[in-house]
Sequence to fold (1323 residues):
Amino acid sequence: MQLSITARGKNANVLSHLLAKNPQNKYDRTHKGARVRLVYTTFTEEEVSLCLFAEPDSIDMVQNQKNLSDITQYMNDRQFVVSSLFCSYIRSALSTALNGKPKPEWASYVAQPFQMEATFGPVATDLPDTALKQLFEPLGYQVIIQREAVSYTFTAKQKSSVRFVTISGQVPLQLLLRHIFTLIPVLDHNKHYFIDQKEIEKLRRYGEGWLDDHPLRDLIIKRTLHFSKLIREMGLTKSSKESEEKEEGQVPLNQLRYETIVHTVKSLPFHRTIVDYGAGEGKLSERLAYIEGAKEILAVEPSVHAQTLAQNRFERLRDRKNIHAQPEMVWGSLFYYDERLKGKDIMILCEVIEHLDEMRLERVFATIMGEYQPQALIVTTPNAEYNARYQLFDSYRHPDHRFEWTRAEFLNWCHQLTSCYHYEVVTTGMGENDEKYGEPTQMAVFTRRKGGEKHG
Amino acid sequence: MDKKIVLPAMGIVLLVGPSNSGKTTLLARLIEEGMIQTTEVVGSDQFRMLLSDQPYMDWTGYPKDQADVLYQEYQEVSEQAFEMMEKVVEKRCRLGKLTFVDATHLHPDDRAKYLQLGLKNHVPVVAVGLDVHEKALLYRDQKRDYPRGKNRIKQQNYRFREVKRNIKKEGFHSVYMLQNEAINTVRFERLPNPLWVDCGAGVDFIGDIHGCYDELIQLLKQLGYRLNDAGLYIHPTGRKFVSLGDIMSRGPKSLETISFIYQHVKAGLAYMIDSNHGWKIARWLNGNQVKLAHGDERVAEEFNQFEQEYGPEKTERWKEEIKAFLIEAPAHLVFQQDGIKQVVAVHAGIRDRYIGKQSKRIADFCRYGDVSAVDEHGKPTRDDWFVQHQSAELIVWGHDPQPYPMMVNRTINIDQGVVFGGALTAFRFPEKNFVSVKSMQPFTMEENNPLWKWKKKRFSPPNMQKLITGYGVQCEGYGEVKVRGESVKPAVDLFSHFTIPLEAIPYLPPTMSPPEVARLDGYLEHPAEAIAYYRKHGIMRMIAQKKHMGSRAVLLIFRDAQVAKDYIGYQTNGVIYTRTGRSFFHKDDERQMISRLQRDFVVGGYFAQHQTDYVLIDAEIMPWNLKAKELIQAQYAHVGEAAIQDRQHLLDRLKQIEHAPADMTPWLDELAHKLHNAEQFQAVFEKYCWDTSDIEAIQIAPFHILAHSQKTFFQQSHEWHMEQARKLSQMSSLMIETAFRVIESEESASDVVKWWEKITEEGHEGIVIKPDRLIRYDGKGSMIQPALKVRGRKYLSIIYGMDYLEPENLARLKKRNPRKKQHRALKEFALGVESINRFVRQEPVERIHEAVLAVLALESDPIDPRL
Fold:
């Protein structure tokens, strides 16, 4: 990771005083565990060029990390690419210039623009070249992006995933460095440290006088602060806030789905005990908790991450009014058997079946209808026909979907089940009705037939 | 003749009688005669002494206010002493000891307490009453150190008369009343525990026979028993056989079987355990109102036929004999070797705390198993009784037909449903092996055939409650592997979202550890340490195999799609999955690969030649980028580019230097060297990658043939496995063989080191060193590492970073310790062997999956992944 700076013009050699670095010496220090080196490659009155590079301790970087779960840890681009880490390594070497505090006799040069050129890299960023340019050009720079050709003995990749960026413009050293220190973390988007209040303060200090007018101000703030609480504190510009609110104004399909399911549950004669199978983050279970007459809600979910989110959601329910049953998390999935799920009033599979391989459905429903035998079973799944409205072409609505059924396919499957098990079924659609394609989501409500038992 | 008292092997003997009736004297005599030990006697005086330092307190003659205090003090001491004494009696009951309680026991409540204790701990309670003339009592009282006083003696004697009237009705196992002189002359006899049996020359346990007489005879012949002139089957070395009950009903020849077993038990050649069918027939013979069903009606029919043939008189006699035989059958037997409990034989099941004890409740449990399915606190039990077995004896049982001897937690079920068309199994002890005879009865595909039902239910989803809070897996040859709930959860998550159907995953490959860090300078790993490891554990012959750098894969290829249904529950030509159970290829590619492999194997005659429906293979699939394309792009290639460009750029920049403040040579040299490291790094991983637009470019290198439909190959040598791989490579162009060398001398060892140096310098990953066979043990009987990987210097740069060989880096990396990794590798290996054994035996998915799930659970614990 490296940064080269060249200044041209009269008194360019003042740079060494602004940096407080003797041009006759090689600078070679260890700072925050990285070896930081600086050397002047050109030094004349009219032109000064210096190269600054850092080399973190690759072993220490890994061994002192807490999370060892990734095999590629020693294979980490953090030791090579410019990132917030790089900024923290070189901050000390550049502190005099960054703070604009040279010896008093050179103070008048702090605000003096020079013809500057800075090259830094390698940059690993998800932003395209155009976005890179849009970050620097409004600040008066010309931007050159250099991306090397790659060649491998096999088809590995089309182009290199790292770039070098050169910006040039008429600008004082301090401002150049502030631009760089602000925008490198924006490019990298991968903070190595805990982001807190200090980051806002740093952003305000380095961004003083230019950030508020930057057309990509919101992008810079979002990618620097990451967390909505901090971003809110920093404040976004008016126009982008409006567009976000507008999005929230629409009733999303999943909310509609939950409402329809809740309505269906209420209309069923028995809804004392309810199982939300594949509960995910618990959004549906949360709504079920408000249903009058509900006594037990089991939210079954195998994902560790989703369970944590659901657990928090349910905790927040505790003190609320009108809660009839506090949802309870149950570890489980459709591929395992749990006697606790036997004989409930209602079992719900909301947008679950399409995440299973189709060939596994038979066994899963043998367990549900043959063993658990809920009084009612509600199943929702996407209507594949409606995808035409989304212009998805051949792909499914979600990358993890293993299939999506047309209305005829779904109906056929439902009838297969009712012919094997002691249930009858009613299917409907939900969401906006398209004359040709039907509704985006389809739902089946299976209810257990009265009378003798029949085994699948 | 003098009166005789028979003492049970364990339980409580309550002496009942007023003070001075001679209880302590009687016990002292028994101790003196060596009949009982001092520790077998507890008494209230003894505990009063222990707690208050005095055996008795006298409050007579004190003024009332002082007497009250003394009396209360005495009451308090007595209460505490009795409580303590009861505790001791209870603990002794629990441990199966005999205990004499030396106290008056005149109050019904005093006796009821001990009756309750006996009931609770399943031991008999015996009462011995001492009936002495009142005059004698009073006379003796005057002579003792702390006389109880005339009034109290008279009062006690009055009570005792009441006791005599009622005690027989109170529920004692037996009640003895000794009068005056008899107390001095009574003789005692101690019974050994009737449930304890010595193993003698060896024992053959036989599962449920159900009237399959012909199979029984065949089995006994196979076990080496020979018919003698008296019509009995005798073993030449004196072995005995033990029937686990249910010898009759359902099958064709119940009476012949009963008669056969009865004759052998009577002759002391065999034992038979009580059982549900046996008990039912016994009660029927006893004239109880029972409904004969579940094949019991066939026994009645046979008796009718007998009667027609031999007349009513002979039949009645015969029925009486059989009834007595069945009623007296023990609920279970404990077989001992050198006086130490080894095997418990029981029909349907037993709790650990019941072992060696007798009671009605135990008898029921042994006959029917855990029918209540509730624990002591009335909560429903989650597990079958055998899941809860923790003590060290082996429990052999029958009752619940399983298609193969089922071993769980040191319990073995040997009812293989001979009457349902299965097999009759014998378990030989101390050899601990099985002999079985195939059934001659038809196998019926109907709901009431438990073997058929069992087969149908095999693929039911595993029970989450048994797994999610953590569990243990008994691994043959290794012992129990435990996994914690916290690790099971993420593994369940994986199996619920990302893997192929869990019934199609009979095995997950274990992790492999490197050896100790290389002693040699400049190396992190070296073959010398691996060879030394095995030699240290007594393994002199090893194999060194080239380690391919691709992705681990398990291949399960079926002879045809139809047969798969019988093994994994659905039709498929096969599956190929990764080490975490995910599908190796995308759908279409997988279909193409599998049908191609299947065709090659069929054409090559593999399935026919080995008489197998499938082959399960552990392999590496190359190239690396086939599976790891995204990882290579995002990590390896990306980091390589970043490093090369960073270093190249910097080098170019510093070379252009016009102004030289100081000597730049060291910096330039260093950068040039590091640029070389980066370039070499890229060359290393490029070696493992090539384009595979044509499936012919894919290479599969098998290293173990894990299983066929009837057998496993863990006992075969690695050379054999390599030979199989060679044959497979001849059958299919997708398969390649693996280069290997055998290490059996210093010379071959140093050849292997040279070979390793050569291929790793070329950039190959390295070698794997294994003992000659998959499963090997050290001198102490512990399983040793099945394999150690020794990776090359160049290869390790893609693991530890391109600059890892820089001396200051290597010095730090050499501080690693592979011990934990080795421990885990062994556990995962044992789990893999176990899960395959279960798969080959066609055990339920739940049993196979618990071992497979445990591998992923172990992997979810963080250990340095770079080892």
Observations:
- The longest strand of chain B covers residues 699-708.
